Amino acid sequence: MYVAVKGGETAILNSHELLAAARRGDERVPEITPAQIRQQLRLAVARVMSEGSLYDEDLAALALKQAAGDQVEAIFLLRAYRTTLPRFGYSLPVDTSRMALRRRISAAFKDLPGGQVLGPTYDYTQRLLDFSLCEPSASPLPPRADEPLAEAMPRVSELLGHEGLMEEELPLPGDPAPVDLSREPLSFPADRATRLQNLARGDEGFLLAMGYSTQRGYANSHPFAGEIRMGEVALEIVPEELGFAITIGEITLTECQMINQFAGSSTVPPQFTRGYGLAFGEAERKSMAMALVDRALRAAELGEETTAPAQQPEFVLSHSDNVEASGFVQHLKLPHYVDFQSELELLRKMRNRHEGRMKVGAGGTAPTEVAAEENA
Amino acid sequence: MNMNDNPGHPVERQHWLTALAMAPCAALEQALEQTRSAGELPTLIWLRLPQTGLFMVRARAGGSGAQFNLGEASVTRCAVQDEVGRIGIGYVRGGNVRHAELMALFDLLLQDEVRRADLLGAVITPLNERRQAAREAASREAAATRVNFYTLAREVE
Amino acid sequence: MNAPHIPMLPGFADPVDDGQRVFRALLDALARPGTVRQLPGLQVSLPRVPAPLHVAAGAVLLSLTDFETPLWLQSPGGELAAWLRFHCGAPLVAEPGEARFAVIDSPATMPPLSAFAQGEPEYPDRSATLIVQVAGFEPSGLRLRGPGIKAECCIGIAGLPAGFWRQRRDAQAHAPLGVDLLFVAEQAVLGLPRSTQVTQADEDKEN
Fold first, then answer.
1. A31-36 contact pairs (CB < 8 A, 24+)
2. Mind telling me how many Å the CA of B77 is from chain A's nearest CA?
3. Residues 65-104 of B with CB under 8 A from A
């Protein structure tokens, strides 16, 4: 039960001041700007955009500054802000096959057409703290190859598709508009479009743990990172007043195609199946984890045994959102004084009854009478 | 306005709208200075004041399958109209109001056949070249990290 | 390509503030059914709208419709359609039953109320709101009762087709399904949500 409490206005206002001072820290150290965060903490910005479900680097950087670096708080700020903005419409589906690639790798094929492109990755760093970063440094001019990458690079899934060894991903009949979780509440059974939107805005840590669990045996999956690509894709819209599509900018995306073995069914021969991950910005861990969980959630549809948590749509989709999760966990610190008082009284009554019973019990009452009293 | 009377061939207009939306805002400011010094600008009214809102970005499962909603992107848009009823529109990703305004202005100017050829040459072509150069530079940086992995075990025929 | 352009009429002078002002007035109109209210500030915020719209109908459409609200027009003229497409982005539909909003500019020849979306038992809100343009309002003729009305109020609405109120009474048998009505005349609006009971003051109830 919730009962309003009053008072504390001055204390709350003072707490805001204290928070602002704590955020600023020692004034002898220069204040950080959102532009610096956007440029130099771009992976933090990407996560806030991805889970805040709003692609806007400036707003995400501001949210990170305001939240003093607390990502979930920054995500919350971004989600709250988006509710103040009007929705103009839906974009055309982004075409990741026309991505201007900055990274593209496959763990399944060594020699893929177009080559493996490492891009800006931590993968081959030594993970040794670099103390030279304590001092200002000039931005190094990265080396350039003589030739740019090929304009279009085929997807790995298409290579296997020609042999019929890879399940096809085709639009649904009529290519219907998908459910929009920012408009409609989550309901079950959830179709793949709903699941993918939920996972795309889901908490990276949660998806990582869920994806990890599928690798450790909680779901019978044997994934390969078929292809991971990162780069810029065009954002295209069709304004109602124009009636034709225009490109209004680019967004950075990270896409992961996981390949999983599939034993086949009565109607489908054995083939590879896919899990899909897509996230705003440079977000490789997120998109890989998302792809693992997407595939695990397809278990029922593929007629596989569903035994593991990552295969349960209600479990996964209902707990993936960190704004919801954080809200429900953190509401526990709000005043529950009346709740607690009633529990305290109940506990006292039970204790009294228990003590009384112990005395009576010592006098030799039959256990059946005790049971009757409890039910009363 | 008769909606069938498309001001400028759709493909041509699509082409310049994309160039304007993808341009750095500073480059458009510079182009405005140039255009101003070359002659007077028409009197315009706001048909739609600049406003930042959202487009839901859609994607496809597996890159080619069923559509799903990925997440939103902020977009700023506006529209201007001149005395003869031409409408210039601006739509840019992000929150840059000035960029949307400049896009709408140039879209409108480009619909004027008297100005079009000059503007395509003086503004749109350089913007496209600049974008192409930036894209190629980024691609060459990525290409410098291309690898050919080879397996250590000798493959047995 | 150089065909003469007809300048398009602007929408609200200030889409956010003007839209919110009208939205607020419409909330009041539906919360207090039967009261005629002038939409505020339209001389400045929306001096002209395309024919055959009344200014208040234009203001309602600019405030309430967007790309997610299919719209049915009784008179889908070229200039009006272009104006709505530009300023509201609302898709125009040919079937009344597909619309979330409908504009009726000639009530005498309007489709029956049952032709419009009535909502679903789980989602009664998935129904149509009808914007009905009328010649004007009169002090008497109808007696209104229901939520938002203290006891009873009287109002008259000119120019509705014969049998309109009987149709509406029949539709109320399916509550909570139904349609909501906004009557407009020039700059004035009168709200009639589906929950309001209307009886005709004269004895001619068969009308």
1. A32/A65, A33/A65, A34/A58, A34/A61, A34/A62, A34/A64, A34/A65, A35/A61
2. 9
3. 65-75, 77, 79, 87, 89, 91-95
> What residues have CB less than 8 Å from B76, skipping those under 6 apart?
B50, B51, B52, B53, B90, B91, B92, B94, B95, B96, B97, B99, B100
Subunits next to B (3 or more Cβ pairs <8 Å) are: A, C
> Which of A59, A94, A182 minimises the CB distance to B74?
A59
Q: Which CATH topology does C15-200 take?
A: Rossmann fold (3.40.50)
* Pairing of β B146-147 and β B87-93: unpaired
Regions of chain C with pLDDT less than 70 = 1-6, 202-207
Q: Residue C104: name the closest of C53, C69, C68 by CA.
A: C53
Give the phi and the psi of residue C163 in degrees, each rounded to 5.
Answer: 85, 0
Residue B24 to residue A65: CA distance in whole angstroms: 25
* A337–chain B nearest CA distance, Å: 39
In whole angstroms, give the CA distance from residue A194 to residue B69.
Answer: 8
pLDDT of residue B21: 97
Q: Which two tokens stand for residue A332?
A: 């526990």
**Structural domain spans, chain C:** 15-200
Give chain A positions within 8 Å (CB) of C69.
none
pLDDT digits (tens, 9 = 90+) for C117-134: 999 999 999 999 999 999
Residues of A with a Cβ under 8 Å from any C Cβ are 86-89, 240-241
Decide if B67 and A92 are in contact by the 8 Å CB cutoff.
no
Q: What is d(CA A1, CA A336) in angstroms, rounded to the nearest whole number?
A: 8
**Strand duo C197-200 + A54-55: pairing:** unpaired
Question: Checking DSSP bridges between strand C71-73 and strand C101-104, what pairing results, if any?
Answer: parallel
What 3-state DSSP class applies to C182? strand
ipTM, two decimals, is 0.90
pLDDT of residue A371: 46
Map residue C73 onto helix, strand or coil: strand
Cα A176 from chain centroid (whole Å):
25
CA–CA distance, A159 with A175 (Å, rounded to integer): 24
Nearest to A51 by CA among A23, A76, A87: A76
> Which helix (H) or strand (E) element contains residue A368?
helix A367-375
First-residue to last-residue Cα distance in chain B: 72
Buried b (16+ CB within 10 A) or exposed e, A201-215: bbbbebbbebbebbe
Which pLDDT score is estimated for C2?
Answer: 40
DSSP C115: G
Q: What SS3 state is found at B2?
A: coil
Would the pTM count as exceeding 0.80? yes
The three-class DSSP label of residue B70 is strand
Q: Which residues of chain C does A87 touch, with a Cβ-Cβ cutoff of 8 Å? A: 66-68
Task: Find the mean pLDDT for residues A215-236.
Answer: 92
Read off the pLDDT band of B149 (50, 70, 90). low
